[in-house]
């Protein structure tokens, strides 16, 4: 990759310190997909982290989107292309961010790995076992690694909550909640002014639709053995999209559940799932309403302490993730502490972790193998909700 990893060392926070000369390699980034998430999060964050990253290549099927995003890159104009292979084989790219349509995540991840590139893939990596296993196999024979973009798991408050929960003598209940307003409301107020373009061909539309249909059939019919209906397809997409953040974080803080006790799945509306763990339940409730608020949190109960992590919309930079601890003190006293450790947003922290993994050749915790467990959870939920 042209990156001198020996120049760097990890500090106690997991980030990379410079060598004795103070030099840090700047990773050259190729971004596949110039849509909303790249415009709102990835390109601006890389610009802010110019001492660690430089966007050198952009790829999209839309020429207008390429030109628009190229103008937003700091540090010199990037090369642009409609060819994923051109980007992945370029000597001007050290690492790849894959942020295009979900149906292409695995194919383009495999191409990056074949060229020994580390890559960050926006969630979900895949919503079927067949494809995520292909990505796992590709990683085994590559010098590259994959980080899946479930960025909430890199928030400092979440990491602190994991430690707090790990110190609990007994968990008696958990709640995972993610009920939010229309995403467009938050995006429009993010001051990033993303634009959408439609200069792609009918062949592009048909190719994406065919790939998605194949994935839905593979997951629902062949692997999950769930009736393939408009309702089950919609829930598969929602659980693989919005739900991946919640399910992935739930696994880190509680582990894998024993089974699903029940699931009420509907959209539009709110869906709810009860997971059984050894000795306690965890409820998961999620959905999208018309109220423009972001209500996402994880709350864990023990007999004497309650730990809660609150997430805000990641599309508005600088909104903190907080941890609140409520506990019994002494014989009858009550204490509540709200901790805001940093204003660093999860996207920034995720990219810093990605940098450290590349420089120090580490496997990220949000790896492909880790993400495979999310597919297992989605399977459990859909089988329960649709009577399989």
Task: Give a brief description.
The chain is α/β, with parallel strands linked by helices. The protein is built from 12 helices and 16 strands.
Low-confidence parts, pLDDT < 50 over ≥5 residues?
4-21
| Percent helix range | 25-40%
Query: How does the major sheet shape up?
Result: 8 strands, mixed
Per the CATH scheme, the topology name of the largest domain is: Dihydrodipicolinate Reductase, domain 2
Pfam family, one: GFO_IDH_MocA
GO biological process, one term: NADPH regeneration
GO cellular component, one term: cytoplasm
Region (Disordered): 1-21
Description:
It is a single chain. With 388 residues, the protein is of the alpha/beta class. It folds into two domains: 5-151 and 348-367, 3-Layer(aba) Sandwich (Rossmann fold), CATH 3.40.50.720; 153-344 and 374-385, Dihydrodipicolinate Reductase, domain 2. 37% of the residues lie in helices and 24% in strands. The protein is built from twelve helices and 16 strands. It has helices spanning 36-48, 63-70, 84-89, 105-114, 129-140, 156-166, 183-188, 202-223, 230-240, 242-254, 346-359, 368-385; strands at residues 9-10, 16-17, 27-32, 53-59, 79-81, 95-98, 118-122, 146-149, 173-180, 259-264, 269-277, 280-288, 294-301, 305-311, 322-329, 333-339. The strands form three sheets. Strands 10-11-12-9-13-14-15-16 form an eight-stranded mixed beta sheet. Helix 4 (105-114) runs parallel beside helix 5 (129-140). The longest helix is centred in the middle third of the chain and has 22 residues, at 202-223. It is globular. The termini are far apart.
């Amino acid at each position: 990759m042209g990156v001198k990893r020996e120049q760097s060392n990890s500090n106690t926070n997991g980030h990379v310190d410079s060598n004795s000369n103070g030099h840090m390699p700047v990773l050259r980034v190729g971004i596949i997909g110039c849509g909303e998430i790249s415009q709102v999060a990835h390109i601006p964050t890389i610009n802010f982290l110019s001492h660690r990253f430089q966007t050198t290549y952009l790829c999209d099927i839309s020429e207008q989107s390429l030109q628009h995003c190229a103008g937003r890159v700091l540090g010199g104009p990037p090369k642009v292309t409609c060819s994923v292979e051109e980007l992945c084989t370029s000597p001007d790219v050290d690492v790849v961010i894959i942020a295009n349509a979900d149906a292409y995540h695995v194919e383009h991840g495999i191409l990056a790995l074949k060229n020994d590139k580390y890559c960050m893939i926006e969630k979900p990596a895949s919503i079927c076992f067949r494809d995520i296993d292909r990505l796992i196999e590709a990683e085994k024979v590559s010098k590259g690694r994959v980080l899946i973009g479930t960025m909430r798991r890199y928030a400092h408050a979440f990491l602190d909550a994991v430690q707090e929960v790990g110190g609990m003598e007994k968990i008696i209940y958990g709640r995972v909640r993610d009920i939010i307003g229309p995403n467009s409301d938050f995006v429009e107020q993010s001051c990033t002014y993303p634009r959408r373009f439609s200069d792609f061909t009918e062949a592009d539309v048909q190719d994406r639709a065919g790939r998605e249909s194949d994935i839905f059939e593979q997951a629902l019919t062949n692997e999950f053995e769930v009736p393939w209906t408009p309702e089950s397809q919609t829930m598969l997409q929602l659980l693989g999209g919005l739900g991946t953040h919640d399910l992935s974080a739930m696994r880190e803080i509680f582990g894998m559940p024993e089974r699903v006790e029940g699931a009420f799945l509907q959209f539009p509306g709110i869906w709810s799932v009860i997971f059984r763990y050894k000795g306690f339940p965890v409820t998961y409730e999620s959905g999208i309403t018309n109220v423009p608020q972001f209500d996402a949190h994880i709350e864990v109960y023990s007999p004497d302490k309650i730990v809660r992590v609150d997430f805000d919309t990641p599309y508005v930079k600088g909104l903190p993730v907080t941890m609140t601890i409520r506990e019994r003190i002494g014989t009858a006293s009550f204490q509540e502490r709200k901790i805001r450790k940093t204003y660093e947003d999860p996207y920034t922290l995720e990219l810093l972790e990605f940098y450290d993994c590349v420089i120090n050749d580490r496997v990220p915790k949000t790896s492909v193998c880790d993400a495979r467990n999310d597919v297992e959870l989605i399977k459990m939920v859909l089988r329960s909700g649709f009577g399989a």
